[in-house]
Design goal:
Strand content: 15-25%
Helix content: 25-40%
Structural class: alpha/beta
Oligomer: single chain
Largest sheet: 5 strands, mixed, barrel
Number of strands: 9
Length: 273
């Protein structure tokens, strides 16, 4: 009944179905890996918000190079943890990161190096401020950083990828991305290999700053793709089986009906009969 499945046409269709299903299963597994990775990031973000701050050196290794260099990045399991550190702000090397959106408004994030007692520096994202009147790229008036010793508490952030050019305008550095290694070249001291989003500061931060929100990753979107790809793989196999069964039934004459006899069309019996 199913010997036709051994024909070249049906073997080719089977091979194509199996390859397509295998690819779709692989795509589902890939999305599952992304879902699990994003779930871990979300769990780290939540854990970091709840934890008590730890010393900076628990999350970073100190930079060991000379001025203009960046130290190693934080370990993956230390990203988003809360740390505390004391130093002195260097407002002469403030960095403005343009094109940042908070509460649906485009403005600037302000990073100021916090110089530690050993001469190294940590970039501290002090928060978001709106641009000056005149457009989203109009350089804002940055609130002064407090003088003297400052203690900050914040969340560890990795350097951002795709760092572009760094310009100096009106005494401040400007960039589109927080690429720590690229920014370090413009600074007169070795810099830690990540930066910190400010949560608390002593003395208190200027109220003009808005805290930079930390958004969770959309891990459920990836989970939806997992279900979608695996369902497509099952549908491909089911579709092959359904078409094969239909062909087998057709070849065996199962389910076919014979046209009814049209008695009216039959020749009339002869009179001699």
């Amino acid at each position: 009944m199913y010997r036709f499945l051994l024909s070249p046409r049906w073997l080719g269709a089977l091979a194509l179905t199996l390859v397509a299903s295998a690819v779709m299963v692989w795509l589902g597994n890939w999305q599952l890996d992304r879902y699990q990775g994003r779930t871990e990031i979300n769990e780290q973000i939540d854990a970091g918000q709840r934890m008590a701050p730890t010393p900076l050196t628990d999350a970073f290794r100190a930079p060991t190079g000379g001025p203009g260099t960046a130290g190693p990045p934080p370990a993956k399991d230390k990203v988003w943890t809360r740390v505390t550190v004391t130093g002195r702000y260097d407002p002469s090397n403030t960095v403005l990161v343009r094109g940042r959106t908070v509460d649906s408004r485009v403005g600037f994030e302000v990073l100021t190096p916090l110089v530690l007692a050993d001469g190294t520096a940590l970039l501290v994202d002090r928060g978001w401020i709106p641009p000056a009147p005149g457009g989203a790229t109009a350089q804002p008036s940055v609130p002064a950083a407090p003088g003297g010793d400052v203690t900050v508490v914040g969340r560890v952030h990795e350097t951002e990828s795709g760092a572009g050019a760094v310009d100096r305008r009106d005494g401040m550095l400007e960039t589109r991305r927080v690429g720590v290694s690229r920014l370090a070249r413009e600074l007169p001291y070795p810099v830690y290999g990540g930066y910190v989003l400010l949560d608390e500061q002593t003395p208190a931060a200027d109220p003009l700053f808005k805290a930079v929100p930390v958004g969770h990753t959309n891990n459920w979107q990836n989970f939806g793709y997992v279900v979608q790809w695996w369902l497509f793989a099952v549908m491909a196999l089911f579709g092959y089986g359904w078409v094969a069964r239909r062909e087998a039934r057709r070849a065996a004459g199962i389910g076919t009906t014979t046209a009814p006899l049209d008695r009216a069309a039959e020749p009339a019996p002869s009179a001699s009969a």
